[in-house]
Design goal:
Layout (H helix, E strand, L loop, with lengths): L16 E8 L9 H17 L2 E8 L3 E8 L6 H20 L7 E9 L2 H12 L1 H4 L14 H7 L2 H8 L13
Antiparallel strand pairs: 1-3, 1-4, 2-3
Length: about 180
C-alpha cells in the first residue's frame, strides 16, 4: 500500500496506545470561551468512554487538542471516534456562534506509541502543554487538561517520574 504524500497517514486499525493531535481549519482560534472549551473537553471525555478508549492525558485549546489514549479489546475504531467528536463539536460550536455550516476542523494526526520512553514523554508533553503555550505557569491550573486529574489520581512517585521525562526532542506538530 502506497502512502498518500499530502496528508498524515492514519493507521488506526490495530490495538495500542496513540497520541492524537487535531487542529482547527487555518489554526483559527474558534473555541475561545470557557463554554466552548468545556463543550469540547466534555465531548472528548464522553465519546472516549462511548468508544471504549482509555484516555491517559488530554489538553484542549482554542484551536487544537492533544490526547494520549489506550485501546482495549472492546475499543471501537479511533477514526470513527474522532469523526464523531469533530462532527458533534463543530455542530455545537456553530450553534453557539450562530455560524451555520462553518468548517471547524482541518485534520488530525495520530502516532502509535510503541516505546515506553516515548509514551511517557508524550504523557508529560500533553499534561504540560498549557504551560508550553503560555496559558498557565503550572499545568494543573489549566481547567481543560488532565494534569490536575493525573496529580490527584496517580501515585506521587508516578507523577514525579512522568513529569521528569524530557519533551524537548519530541517531534510533535504544535505550532499553534
Amino acid at each position: 500500500m502506497k502512502d498518500w504524500p499530502h496528508a498524515p497517514v492514519h493507521r488506526l486499525d490495530s490495538d495500542g496506545v496513540f497520541m492524537v493531535t487535531a487542529a482547527t481549519l487555518y489554526k483559527e482560534h474558534l473555541f475561545i470561551g470557557s463554554e466552548q472549551l468545556t463543550m469540547l473537553e466534555n465531548g472528548l471525555l464522553s465519546l472516549a468512554k462511548k468508544y471504549h478508549w482509555q484516555l491517559e492525558a488530554w489538553a484542549v485549546f482554542s484551536n487544537h487538542y492533544h490526547f494520549v489514549a489506550r485501546s482495549r479489546s472492546e475499543s471501537l475504531n479511533l477514526k470513527k471516534f474522532l469523526t464523531h467528536l469533530h462532527a458533534d463539536a463543530a455542530r455545537e460550536l456553530n450553534r453557539l456562534d450562530e455560524k451555520v455550516g462553518r468548517k471547524v476542523w482541518y485534520n488530525f494526526w495520530d502516532t502509535k506509541l510503541t516505546y515506553q520512553r516515548s509514551y511517557l514523554a508524550r504523557l508529560n508533553y500533553v499534561h504540560q502543554n498549557a504551560v508550553k503555550h503560555g496559558l498557565v505557569k503550572v499545568a494543573n491550573q489549566y481547567p481543560w487538561c488532565s494534569a490536575a486529574w493525573f496529580e490527584r489520581t496517580a501515585p506521587a512517585a508516578m507523577v514525579k517520574s512522568i513529569y521528569g521525562f524530557k519533551t524537548d526532542k519530541l517531534k510533535i506538530d504544535d505550532d499553534y
